Amino acid sequence: MGVQSDSLGVMQRIVTQIDFDAELRQRGELRMLTAKEAVEIARKYMRDIYGALDGLNVEELELNDTKGFWSVTMGYWEFLPDPKPSANSISTVLGAGLERGKVRRAYKELRIAAASGDVLSMKIRPVPSAEPR
């Protein structure tokens, strides 16, 4: 029962903070990140985590004002290994994964606190039409 009441207390504090932040925003006393700032934070976070990514771009951007976060979907090219390299391929000869197979667009959704700029979460954003080419 102690864990449940602790969880309930945490949730009540979060709801109270969200309500307080919303009130401050309405009065103009709480500065929120702009869309451009949220995108730059997402881009930097992705590069910090993954290093250089080919074709890293913002794909979707939405402010959830009631919950106080930006949802930023970033897309990038993901290179898949060639599942059946030919016997003459350089990767087969050298025994290294030097050849790239198919390429597909991959997406990550990041939630960024609108008030602080902290990255709250990063999730895989599945897109049915993002089949390898």
Low-confidence stretches: none
Distance between the termini: 53 Å
What's the number of domains? 2
**The CATH top-level class label of the largest domain:** Alpha Beta
Helical amount: 25-40%
Count of distinct strands: 4
Oligomer: single chain
Give the C-alpha Rg: 21 Å
What's the architecture of the largest domain, going by CATH?
Roll
Q: Major sheet: size, sense and barrel closure?
A: 4 strands, antiparallel
Order of helices and strands: HHEEHEE
**Average residue pLDDT:** 79
Strand content: 25-35%
The gross shape turns out to be: elongated
Task: Enumerate the strands of the largest sheet in spatial order, edge to edge or round the barrel.
Answer: 1-2-3-4
The secondary-structure class comes to alpha+beta
CATH topology of the largest domain: Nuclear Transport Factor 2, Chain: A
Provide a count of the helices: 3
Secondary-structure blueprint of this entry?
Layout: H1 2-26, H2 35-50, E1 57-64, E2 69-81, H3 90-94, E3 100-113, E4 119-124
Antiparallel strand pairs: 1-2, 2-3, 3-4
